[in-house]
Amino acid sequence: MIKKVQKILFFDRSLLALSFAIIVIALTAIIAFAYTGNLEKQNTTLKSRVAEMQSMTGEVTALKSTVDLKVKKIGLTKTGGIVPVLEQMLNSLGIKAKAIKPLEKNKVKDYMEEDAELEIQGTDLNSIVNLLYKIDNSPVPLKVKSSAIRTTFEDPNKFILKLTVSLLSKA
Questions:
Q1: 113: nearest Cα among 90, 161, 81
Q2: What is the reported pTM?
Q3: What is the pairing mode between strands 159-170 and 142-151?
Q4: What are the DSSP calls for 84-152, one per residue?
Q5: Contact between residue 126 and residue 144 where contact means Cβ atoms under 8 Å apart
Q6: Enclosing H/E stretch for 166
């Protein structure tokens, strides 16, 4: 039987060419099917990546607007230093400071960081909270580096507050 098939295939050239074409088409179809399956898998992974990136665009936009706001805040406010800023803040709250000592200036990349030590004696807790709120929400970028609160010996309801505050500005 095999010899008959071989005789038929080799005897008739058109039948041989047709069988060869069918085999090539079958192999091409199998390879194409496997390749499209692989492309579909890559497509689904890329679609999931795109969806993940699109979900992050809202966060990136919010972060960018926050950074732009801070940069604008640093660039627009021109101050004479940290001591006048703290004095103005204390005067608006009606608090008297025992000492405001300017410390050092540090240059960090394109920005200057100017430190000052603030000491307030005989203040109540409400005034401390108001001062910290005012520092946090001031029109100039201020940062509290360290703080120490102690009670006084004469009156336990009065406190001694020591703060180290930094003013950030463009260099």
A1: 81
A2: 0.56
A3: antiparallel
A4: HHHHHHHHHHT---SEEEEEEEEEETTEEEEEEEEEEEEE-HHHHHHHHHHHHT-SS-EEEEEEEEEE-
A5: no
A6: strand 159-170
Sketch the domain layout of the chain as residue ranges. 2-74, 82-170
**AA letter at 31:** I
* Residues 6+ away with beta carbon under 8 Å from 144: 132, 135, 163, 164, 165, 166
- Rounded Cα gap, residues 63 and 65, in angstroms: 5
Q: Which amino acid is at 25?
A: I
82-170: CATH number: 3.30.70.60
Token look-up 């579909």 returns: 40
pLDDT tens per residue across all 171 residues of the chain: 677 766 665 666 776 777 888 999 999 999 999 898 888 999 999 999 999 988 888 888 888 888 887 767 665 556 678 888 889 888 888 888 888 898 888 887 878 889 999 999 988 899 999 999 998 888 788 889 999 999 988 888 889 999 999 988 776
Cα atoms in the Cβ-side hemisphere of radius 13 Å centred on 100 = 16
Tokens standing for 69? 């706001």
Taken as a whole, the chain contains a residue count of: 171
Residue type, position 59, single letter: E
At 55, list the tokens.
């979900």
